[in-house]
Design brief:
Elements lengths: L2 H19 L2 E4 L1 H16 L11 E5 L26 H8 L3 E6 L33 H8 L5 E6 L5 H7 L2 E4 L19 E6 L2 H12 L5 H10 L3 E6 L9 H12 L6 E6 L7 H22 L6 H10 L4 H24 L2 E5 L12 E4 L2 E4 H7 L2 H5 L4 E9 L2 E8 L5 H15 L27
Parallel strand pairs: 2-3, 2-4, 7-8, 7-9
Antiparallel strand pairs: 1-3, 4-6, 5-6, 5-12, 9-13, 10-11, 12-13
Length: 455
């Protein structure tokens, strides 16, 4: 397929599906077609920029794109058009990728539910009355629905991994500072990362390498090095972090077991750090309020009410509380790094519950009701606090909704995460796909191909 074929097909799918899903804020029809024409001319002239050359991708709407509206999901920036690409976008353009459009983000990326944005909620392709997860919900939905094969998101406490798990795709949060965040609107600068979302592990690797460059020796060498010896994996019981649906735990652990005893030794390990979600909330809240204080004073009416209320709560975080949280963060990171000296990877579910209904703020769990935001962040935020890379890969379905297995590696361990997930992915493709009530039919299982034949 030519770049023009790929872009035209993506535009057709966006026109067909996005009215039901709300994945996109802006679709750049003219710009994408012009870029496809240039990509095809380059290929005809013998210029091949790599495996993403001519492949359409989507970009979260808090990441700057030169000449293309970037709203941060907020009325504050409804007409904002950057003059310069974010660093990560410039890297994708250099790799030949074509920017199809900008995807829905929870307003200012400040929420894991994905249903608070000036342009409306991003809806789950497996049930449009369900949350996509956030804050990179639009990117996950666009990939899961087959509109684009690849998308960029941002992940501060789970904002790539949560929607990727809920939409049944692969999501990678890298090591802190592995990808520059220049040109990304900040939420919590000490925690923010740029992440990758894809329909397959191999596609995710191609997107990751476009962002940071290929590993010396090539991806095959990296996979062979990591997978020729038996992995040591520490399984963390999610109940020690948050009340977790037993079916979710079973699906995640069952997926991990597909590696088999010859490939991996799996031991149950204790979480070495104290509860980290309050630490995460303190750090994120204090830094988010610092970003928004002037804007809150000048134009509070332009915020979504729920987001504004959360920012006002964050304003109550004192300086002493913030610095204490930073000290706890440092100790927690040291404890987790010590555990990862004994194990190659850690594993646990990505989220403790299946995707809640849109607008839900409490759900039944553990004999009572639990806060949805707390639940969604409970299993992903510890690794953000520690600055560790983490990946979610599909782990089947609970009540007809996708759930994910989360793998965590030492700093710089992205290729180990991808290699391990690739070993699991061949088994995962045998899992049954349930009917999709939100669309005209089921979302098809993507053939296990690379991003060079994405659709």
């Amino acid at each position: 397929m030519s770049p023009q074929d790929l872009v035209d097909q993506a535009l057709q799918e966006a026109a067909r599906l996005d009215p039901q899903l709300g994945a996109f804020v802006t679709v750049d029809t003219e710009g994408a077609r012009a870029s496809a024409y240039r990509a095809a001319r380059e290929l005809a002239d013998g210029v091949d920029r790599g495996p993403l050359h001519g492949v359409p991708v989507a970009i979260k709407d808090n990441v700057a794109t030169a000449g293309l509206r970037t709203t941060m999901g907020s009325r504050h920036f409804a007409d904002h058009v950057p003059t310069q690409d974010a660093d990560c976008v410039a890297r994708l353009r250099s790799a030949g990728a074509i920017i199809l459009g900008k995807t829905t983000t929870h307003e200012f990326a400040y929420g894991p539910t994905g249903d608070r944005s000036a342009n409306g909620a991003a809806r789950n392709p497996y049930g449009t009355e369900r949350m996509s997860g956030g804050s990179s919900g639009g990117s996950a939905v666009a990939v899961a629905a087959g509109i684009v094969p690849l998308a960029l998101g941002t992940d501060t406490g789970g904002s790539v991994r949560i929607p990727a798990a809920y939409c049944g795709i692969v999501g990678l949060k890298p090591t802190q500072d592995a990808v520059p965040t220049d040109g990304v609107f900040p939420l919590s600068p000490s925690l923010d990362t740029v992440g990758a979302l894809a329909r397959t592990v191999d596609d995710c690797r191609l997107l990751w390498e476009a962002l940071v460059g290929p590993r010396p020796g090539g991806p095959g060498a990296a996979r062979q090095k990591h997978m020729t010896s038996r992995l040591r994996i520490g399984w963390i019981d999610p109940e020690t972090l948050f009340p977790t649906d037993s079916a979710v735990t079973g699906a995640a652990h069952g997926t991990l077991d597909l590696l088999g005893p010859d490939a991996a030794q799996v031991d149950e390990v204790a979480m070495p750090a104290d509860a980290l979600l309050p630490v995460y909330s303190t750090i994120q809240g204090a830094e988010a309020f610092s970003v928004h204080a002037d804007r809150m004073a000048a134009a509070p009416d332009l915020y979504d009410e729920e987001v504004l209320a959360r920012l006002r709560d964050a304003a109550r975080v004192g300086r002493a509380d913030y610095y204490e949280a930073l000290l706890v963060r440092r100790r927690a990171r040291a404890s987790l790094l010590d555990l990862l000296r004994r194990y190659d990877l850690l594993a646990l579910p990505t989220v403790p519950i299946p995707a809640p209904f849109l607008e839900a703020r409490t759900v039944p769990a553990a004999g009572g009701n639990v806060d949805v935001r707390t639940a969604l962040l409970s299993l992903t935020s510890p690794w953000s606090i520690a600055g560790l890379p983490a990946l979610t890969t599909p782990a089947g379905f609970v009540d007809g909704l996708p759930v994910g297995l989360q793998l965590v590696a030492p700093p710089g361990g992205e290729h180990l995460l991808l290699a391990t997930a690739a070993a699991l992915h061949h088994a995962e493709c045998r899992l049954p796909i349930p009917p999709n009530p939100g669309l005209t039919g089921p979302v098809p299982r993507t053939p296990r191909t690379t991003a060079t034949t994405p659709l």
